[in-house]
Amino acid sequence: MAKKVTKKKAAKKNKKYVYFFGEGKADGRADMKNLLGGKGANIAEMTNLGIPVPPGFTITTEVCTEYYKNNRRYPAGLNEQVNKALARVEKIMGKEFGDPNDPLLFSVRSGARSSMPGMMETVLNCGLTTKTIPGLIKKTGNPRFVYDAYRRLMMMYSDVVMEKAAGIEPKSDHDAVRHKLEHEMERVKKKKGYKNDIDLTTEDLKALCAKFKNIIKKTLGTEFPDDHMKQLWGGIGAVFQSWMGKRAVSYRKIEGIPEHWGTAVNVQTMVFGNTGDNSATGVAFTRNPATGENLFFGEWLPNAQGEDVVAGIRTPNPVNEAGKTADTRHLPSLETKMPTLYKQLHAIERKLERHYTDMQDIEFTIEDGRLWMLQTRVGKRNGQAAIRMAVEMAKEKLISKQIALLRVKPEQLDELLHPSVDPAHEKKAKQLAKGLPAGPGGALGQVVFTADDAEAWAKKGNKVILVRNETSPEDVHGMHAAQAILTAKGGMTSHAALVARGWGKCCIVGCSALEIDLKKKLINVNGTVLKEGDWITLNGTAGRVYEGKLNLLPADPEHNKWYKELMKWADQVRKLGVRTNADTPSDSATARTFGAEGIGLCRTEHMFFESARIKAVREMILSDTIDGRRNAIAKLLPYQKKDFIGIFKAMAGLPVTIRLLDPPLHEFLPHSEKELRDLAKEMNVKFKKLKARNDALHEFNPMLGHRGCRLGITYPEVYEMQARAIMEAACELKKNKVKVIPEIMIPLVGHVKELEDMREIVVKAAEEAQKKYGVKVPYTVGTMIELPRAAVTADEIATQADFFSFGTNDLTQTTFGLSRDDAGSFLPYYVEKGILEDDPFITIDKSGTGQLVKMAVDKGRKTKKNLKMGICGEHGGDPASVEFCYNIGLDYVSCSPFRVPIARLAAAHATIKKKR
Ligand code: ADP
Ligand code: MG
Ligand code: MG
Q1: What is d(CA 471, CA 145) in angstroms, rounded to the nearest whole number?
Q2: Which of 602, 872, 885, 895 is catalytic?
Q3: Among candidates 64, 252, 230, 241, which has minimal Cα distance to 164?
């Protein structure tokens, strides 16, 4: 027993905690990100590729995990391994850490598996002390550089090690040590009349360093450490501390990153870009991350260190001539200033991209004419760039077509399908407010406050943005007329958000900074006052609001050859069909250009709302005799027929699923007494009688009330008329040689008997219509599966159905027993708290609602092997749900027109992922 324990201890002691890299050889590799973090693994990989990387070592993520397991104590053996690695670096560099004559300096860099905001920032120049400074000055003959490095060390170290990692919370931003030091430096610059940091002289910097020490002591109560080893371990400890820092912990929660992953620490020999004009630092991308163009693209600064390039203290220069724009044409490029080094950098950059087979984001530093690489990682890119890069890389045979498809996230297509705010212009503009990005793309327009105004202004040819506290179904006409919708309240599932998403319209909701005064027609936004007619610009993809007009870049997917190529590949790969939800000929036409292969859901209720029709509808509902109802409904038939002809024509040759009337009857009823009185007059009945009937139709819970096929059961003449209109339209077109594939769908079926009854009515009407026209049009009759009972008895229901279409909006409502319209007050909270991983109305709830769908698919196919099945809820356009639909064996998904390309790509992803 005792022996076993010692053995275990010994094993622990021998565990490798430190991975060395230097002189062309590294202990680690790119695929060791879990152990070495992203930065460390890639540094090791670059070293092994023979790319010049300053030597150093990585302390593993396991140390971080053990550190927290053991009450914030390092594992035994770590110290020894670090010392060994230090000695190896010293040997390579021919210098020693802490040597007063020729000191070696280090950077301490944090590195989790994936880059994580909230982690400790890098500390450069570790090892500068009163003992080593004179030696370094003598060695370099460059006191200015040494004091510049020292003041940077103090700024970074006091901030991230002594304050943040130590858990010291400054009372305000002004009390933070970094702010105080920066303030002091600014004061000196101002006093001396300097514009830039590089104007500071040796004497200035020397005095500044002395001042810094005092400020640090006064602010934090401790001395700035004047010992190289203390600095190094302070830095290492700070990285591990920051793993449990407030910001890192909350970021992990949001991103779902587990705590046990831990972070690694990289200790690396310093190379200096700030020793003079023969030195420089920069960041670059192997292709343009904004356009995707295959062109080395980046920025550099002479005589600068570390993050000066990204920090925006000085305006960086373009690395090459080809990357210059009108704004940067006058600046010096690295290509012309240091041509040999540029060539070397270019060669390395090519090598890295070929090696990683993806666009890389790289950091480099030039010290006295020598190039060093400090980081490489897969670069972030926007949607447009992602598409172009993926397609071009596949054509260059760098990657396969399948990988190219996977490289583009379906959501990234959104950017291409809508006009967008010009990023260059947006960068310069001042943001007015921020809200939730509910509808993609960019839009500009004049502020209006009511739906009626929106419509009226738009009719006069104005571009308007409808601004409201929140929207309701009565606002729909104004929302339609507006370029975009902006609301002060509501979340991602609010009315405004849903409607806008369906149309692919730019929309920002929950923009709480807006104080809207409807009476005065004014908005107060953080002190800025906007009146009716003022111009604003919205970036709906990011949720940002701007005052005035910003440039918009037009959406033009049809002329984007990379997009078209990628979509072609997607269609070749995918097995799942993609249809659209469309109620009008124009929506149908849009969807067709986006690649829809049919209509999965054509709602008919909106066809009842137009002013000429609504009267007949109301007459029908409120009359209490069959004849009265039949009379009224007969007036609707020609309208319905016309609607269907339009849609059938737009979708000629493709299947069209038409859902018979679904919403609760009272939605069609008059709302005001005046409307009711007018109607009474028209119908020639007493107002009192009509009112009584109207009141009787009131429902407490309309969602679970008199709607769906329950209407067809109680008012069979409605469904009969609709079926007749559909089939007469189809027959008429058939006579004109237009191919039509009608699929008639009965909503809200929960019992097979309901469907049986409705089917009989529909078939009878359909047969009569065909007889009348003397032609045959093949048609099918199917049902929505949107109630749990329908899913559970799908085998029975299948006996009466030619197809199933899953209405996952209602199915989600009825499965959870919650109303989507009322969920805004608690559902976001559920998602935030992690009770639900996602909003089940956006991404299908796989283990609940999804299981009901799966059960219905299996049961339905047991009865009818080839029963056609699709989904028409909003989930049809959500990539994760599309994958789920494919995996459980649906034939198609149906979504709003603007999401059709997204669903096509998501379907391709699903096929590729399942194969792997
Ligand atoms: P981040 O993850 O925030 O990019 P890094 O660790 O990459 O942090 O470092 C920040 C900056 O410091 C980068 O510009 C990097 O190139 C530079 N840097 C890091 N280590 C060194 C080093 N050893 N020598 C010179 N510059 C360094
Ligand atoms: Mg940083
Ligand atoms: Mg970096």
Answers
A1: 61
A2: 872
A3: 241
